[in-house]
Amino acid sequence: MSKKNVTAVILAGGLGTRLQSVLSNKPKVLATVKGRPFLSYILDQLYDADFKRVVLCTGYKADHIQKAFGDVYKSLVLVYSQEVVPLDTGGALRLAYPLLESERVLVMNGDSYCQVDLEAFEKWHCERKVSVSMVLTQVPDVSRFGRIRISTEKRVLTFEEKTQKAVPGLINVGIYMFSRLCLLEIPEKEKISLEKTMFPKWVSMGIFGFETRGKFIDIGTPESFASAEEFFGNCAFEL
Question: I need a labelling partner for 177 at 20 to 30 A (CA). Which of 19, 45, 97, 124 fits?
Answer without folding.
Answer: 19
